[in-house]
Amino acid sequence: MATQKLFAGAKLREIRNRVSLTQKDFAGKLGVSLPYLNQMENNNRPVSTTVVLALAQEFGIDVTELTTGDSERLVSDIREALADPILSEDDVPLADIRLSASNAPTLARAFLKLHRAYRQTHERLASLDEALGRQDVKMQASPWDEVRDFFHYCDNYIDAVDHAAESFAEQAKSKGSIQTAAINALEHIGVRVTLESMNALRRYDPESKTLSLSNLATPETRNFQLLLQVALLQRNSLLEATLDLARFQSEASRQIAKIGLANYFAGAAAMPYGDFLAAAQSTRHDLEVLSRQFGASIEQVAHRLSTLQRPHHKGVPFFFVRVDQAGTITKRHSATRLQFARFGGACPLWNVHRAFETPGRFLRQLAETPDGVRYFSLARDVSKSGGHYGAPVRRYAIALGCELKHADQIVYADNMDVSTAASFEPIGISCRICERPDCHQRSVPPLERKLTIHENERGVVPYDVS
Predict the structure, then answer these.
(1) What is the pTM for the complete model shown?
(2) The sheet that has 319-324: what strands, in order across it?
């Protein structure tokens, strides 16, 4: 099989700017001529093996930085945006989309931002009178979307926060438990921790410096909320500095992102990177064993596994998603080539939807996306009790998965037949951009394909896809 050529011009420029070198000096460090470097940065030549080795030796660059990152995410997001009815008549070749994502990522993100603004305005049509009467309406992404994209394009890994949480966990070992360490850290700054019977998981009163936790919540949830409060009070300067770098468009986005970073700190402190990665590898990613070992919920463990993308010390690149009973994606992240739909729900053929039918059980699935990439997917329901009789139960399902080449590191993938094509279920991203012509669960036609309607014949769906 021929080796695929590596074109990574945008990434080379990013690395050169990061180390503050001119093209001439950078070329000298890499042992290539200035014209050759210029051609690589403009994707007129592939990155050579010699350059890859020089990047590792001279600058300590992880080679995976050149092959992963924003490009595949941008390609997936642009394809979905182009499938919008207002753009669907423009048949943009996939090669052009890939070229834009790799050569002009800033322009690609600007296009996506413009499309998000259009979508937001379109969705406001139901309240058009109110919107037109306001003078402060701005064409910008919703705060939730902006924060989601921030974590999405950071690979769901925030290095400074992750290291700070790991340092806190290391210091906590002398205290006996992470819970004791969190309580001591809060008491050190004059915060009193109490347990109360209340529906809210956590309530902090700045005036009395009292943190109240719900005695209806599970122990792992209370520990998580303790650590979250530590982040907000003791690591506030770190969180604010990270938010300054992100440059959010609105104060609402910044506030939501701050809670997201505090949540990140809590998860990373409860499951510190080095210890957790070693345990994940030794148990072959057994979620139940990891849950007991680190005092975390199954969902917290699965989410944490999807963040193990520290340079030079990466874990298995997982995708992680949580859906509600309506199929709406409420959490999503992918360190793999599989990217989730930005609008609407997930593919109905995915096993995450069947998890609601089998509470308490792990469901395994071998799947193949239209681009021919094969995945292993694990799904389970994660119902959350309200803590007392009559309280509403929140029902979700989560899925954790990876490309098939990593499946031998996953205990759940043992004894699955990967030798035949029939073992792999055909899944897609969303019906609007899925290229499969004969899907029996298709909800809407693919917007990039022409349809043929047969008046005298009806198949699974009432049309044929070209």
Answers:
(1) 0.72
(2) 329-334, 319-324, 396-403, 374-381, 363-368, 425-426
pLDDT of residue 352: 92
* Fold of the domain built from segment(s) 141-270: Arc Repressor Mutant, subunit A (1.10.10)
Q: Any idea which architecture 314-430 has in CATH? A: 2-Layer Sandwich (3.30)
CA distance 219 to 225: 10
pLDDT at 342 over 70: no
* Residue 329 · residue 341 · CB < 8 Å: yes
- Find the DSSP H helices in 83-158: 94-103, 105-123, 128-133, 143-153
Among 4, 8, 148, CA closest to 77? 148
- DSSP code of 376? E
- Which regions of the chain carry the CATH code 1.10.10.2910? 141-270
Of 102, 76, 78, the closest CA to residue 90 belongs to 78
pLDDT digit string (tens) for 119-157? 766 555 534 444 444 444 444 567 888 888 888 778 789
CATH architecture of 9-67: Orthogonal Bundle (1.10)
Distances (CA, A) of 55 to 46, 58, 423: 14, 5, 41
CATH 1.10.260.40 residue spans of the chain: 9-67
